[in-house]
Amino acid sequence: MRRSFQIAAIVAFLVTLVAGGLWGDRLLALSDDARDGLRLYTELVTLAHDRYGVEVTYKDLVFSSVEGMLRTLDPHTNFLPPDAYTGMREKQQASFYGLGILVGSRNSQLTVISPIEGTPASRMGVQAGDVISTIEGEPTSKMSIDDAVSKLKGPKGTQVKITLVRRGLPDPLEMSITRAEIPQTTVRQAYMLTPETGYIQLSEFSRSTGKEMADAIQKLQGQGMKQLLIDLRNNGGGLLDQAIDAAEQFVPEGASIVETRGRTRDSFQTYEASGRHSPLGKPVVVLVNEGTASASEILSGAIQDHDVGLVVGTPSWGKGLVQTVYGLSYGAGLALTTAKYYTPSGRLIQRDYSSYYDYYAHVEPPGPGTPPVPGAKPREIFRTDLGREVYGEGGITPDVVAEPEKLGPFEQFLLARNAYVNFALDYHLRHKATSIDWQPAEDVAVPFRQWLIDEKIASAKDVADGIKSTESMDFARLQIRAEVLNIDFGQEARSRALAQADKQIAQALAQFPKAATLLAQRRGLEDKEKHAVATKL
Length: 537
Known about the structure:
The radius of gyration is 27 Å and the shape is globular. Strand 17 (about 320-325) and strand 18 form a beta hairpin. It has helices at about 1-20, 30-50, 60-70, 80-90, 120-125, 145-150, 210-220, 240-245, 295-305, 355-360, 410-415, 420-430, 445-455, 460-465, 470-490, 490-500, 505-510, 510-535, and strands spanning about 80, 95-100, 100-105, 110-115, 130-135, 140, 160-165, 175-180, 180-185, 185-190, 195-200, 225-230, 255-260, 270, 285-290, 310-315, 320-325, 335-340, 380-385, 390, 400. Helix 7 runs parallel beside helix 8. It is built from 18 helices and 21 strands. The strands form six sheets. A six-stranded mixed beta sheet has the order 10-11-12-15-16-21, with helices on both faces. It folds into four domains: about 1-70, no CATH class; about 95-185, Pdz3 Domain; about 185-365 and about 375-400, 2-enoyl-CoA Hydratase, Chain A, domain 1 (Alpha-Beta Complex); about 410-500, no CATH class. The chain is of the alpha+beta class. About 40% of the residues lie in helices and about 20% in strands.
């Protein structure tokens, strides 16, 4: 009797969890094969629960087995436990209630990266580099970033007590900060990079991205923008409708932006520019890298295929699987692949994932004209509106390849240890930035090297070997300058400082004459099409 009850309970739990959001009344119409499979499954779960060497719960067994099952489908179909599902939904919202700080883990400490201007944290004097040591009296050293962020959030108007440890102060600072509505901006930066060039850095696509993009463009046009650089590096994507809204601001009305194709009839959809936005009509360069994925590939692919801009950088990730998110029982969710994304020219964005190792290691498929890799499928050639060649099944291949700056092992080590940031916090106590043009001392690498030794971050020999070339000293000076500017003037000042030495940005800026020529050719094509229509009439 007990065993029968266990099996019944497992079946009820599994079927309700996995099928509750998908099947509804069809639960009663399970086939014989489905019933046999569930019977075998419940026997396996029962044996594991009763006989495994350590105690495990039915819930843990079912959740992990669901995850294992989904791994056999594709890399992006994911089971979302309740916490993950809630976090995903919150991330997609345009705002939340909290303090208004960007936080991260530095040296295993919860550290303020930057307060957001005009928010409660900024008004209370929270500074970049402050370590949040406790939240409501609970040490943060044992919290994950997600746990800490969830404790900082809460209902509007409520207070949260935090303790800050700030370099240069002997005692911690205790604050009670009232939570307020904090916008989750996805346009992280929007400023004039040169007197003619606007710069927009887009981090992801959430509920407000389309409007943010429109607002940023309007702001930059008001400042005299004649050409636009869109930075989509490390933009992992987000909401499809927001990618479409952003793309509509660059492509002509009626132009295809993206097509989805799947197994079911309703998965075949073509999304076109509705005309809600007037196309920018100025030269555009889009900067991408291997962290550019999904919705950001839709935007860059539409701009490239319709010849309204050039794509510069390194090949994008190649994530072209459409996830439909279903709510399940117990507060869980399922992000299920239901279709694939195709750009306006008809090329599939998704890279081959027959080998998960190659997929996650980002092994590039061979392009046309390159020696074939044994067993590799050659990439298909497609054509843009003007007839330029573009390639499918491998993300978005840039029109112009621009490699990032190669960092040495010691520089990468120092970045991972947050050495430049922490030194800048100490340096800032004696050398505050007086303007955005501020520069640290020419010989700042000398005290920086000694600081690394004193802080036991690296040995004297490693420091001497790692920071001895002109390039390594210039890099250290740049990073220190950027972090000090961040403390005194915020994230935009930091971004500007780093952009001045960004090799990929420099190469992108050099492509604007070619982008202007391409746009002129595009306009010529549109004029011919209009003339042809008028002649027929």
